[in-house]
Protein: Insulinase family protein
Organism: Kribbella pittospori
Amino acid sequence: MGADALRHTEVDGVPVYWVAAEGRLHASLWFRAGRVDERLPTAGRLHLIEHLALHGRESIRTPVNGQVSLLHTAFAVAGEPDEVTRSLAELCAWLTEPDWGALDHERRVLQAESARRQAGPTESQLIWRYGAQGPGLVGYEQFGLGQAGPEYLAEWLRTMFVRGNAGLALTGPPPAGLCLPLPDGPRVPVPAAVPCEQHTPAAFPDRLDGVALSGVVRRSTEATVLAGALQRELHAHFRTGSGVGYSAWQGYEPVDAAQAVLLAGIDLLPEAVPTASKEAVGVLRRLMTNGVAEADLRDQIAQQIEELQDDPAGRWQPAGAIRELLAGRQVTDRDQLIEELRRVTPAEVRDVAKDVFASLLISADPSSELDTSVSWLGMPTVWEPAGGDRFRPVGRRTKDQLLVTGKGVYRGGEAIGVEARFDDLAAVVVYPDGGRALVRRDGYQLVVEPEFWRRGRKAIELIDAAAPEAVRVAMPARDAICTASGEPAVC
């Protein structure tokens, strides 16, 4: 067995994957608990647990780090074998019997971090595809930070941070005395990623200095090859060809055990933005129709193989194996991945491009010209419901109205408008001044500000009485009221 071979064992019932790399020992303890397992009102609780578990453990000799991704939570430590052993044992002890003394401190740290954070192109694509649930939660504020007390966090620890839901990755053999004293508990399956019910190919408004697109694909090696090819073709079209682009990029985000979202984009000069969406769709259409040239495909595959072989010991292999194992997928080592790459054909890449096109979402400046196959997304309209309490705007002669029924809230004209149903809410954001943002599961929101409506306080009373308590999110006082309803966001 070579030095770079992926090895497997078990410690205290926890699967362990490792390679025989030289240097300091790097360990990462993984759990099948990610953003997709949260709801909008609880979003951020995993992040808070990750911070609390590592609070006070950082040192120069044994640096620690943590992360919460879509599907996993991981804790990493590096050092001498005995130091790593001690750090992992202390971490497992905290996860089993947590100390909440640093709760308020870490809550404030994360709230400060969240206040500065802005959604990038990947987050925007996931919001518009999945709404205010599952993978779409990565683009929303972490509302659960403000409402997460010890009792709520302890429940997550009891169900998610358990032996059957864990795996350990090491860059060396398991040290003598290694123990992982986690509580018993089963594996948590990955929830299926369910896109919003909307037509595709479609565009959504986004004022980026560039263009970004995405599609849903089956998790596969050929999909990663297409991601690289799409990045290369966007670079060739916008930078090499037109001289209006700078840095092309690509991404591949697993969103459940079977599917991933493939993303690509490029930064552009302002004068290129009006036609960028149409041109980017044209680039994808050519890949879907003509595929990737055989020579380009060989070069792309050779590049990906070189990246896999860049680290002689394959230090990335154990963590990759644990992620696959916890997601219920087949574990593959580096040699198997390389063999899969060598078997990829132009026809397979073309088929993946067809899947991307069929599920295409593309960001576009609101003034952009779109490809004829692409149409704009928008909040669905409905006919005015019967019954309910009717409210008219303050100080305006208009047909606009607010209607609160036993089933939901409607806003619009006397025939057609938009609606947020109480049984389809991801969250009701509650402000002390009376404002409410009703966030639907598809991400669209309907905002009700009592000052804008005659008897507006009565409307808020009716909404509060009918909306499920489990979706309420209490917010601190705000500087300004919200005037926008519609596109996925929260005021």
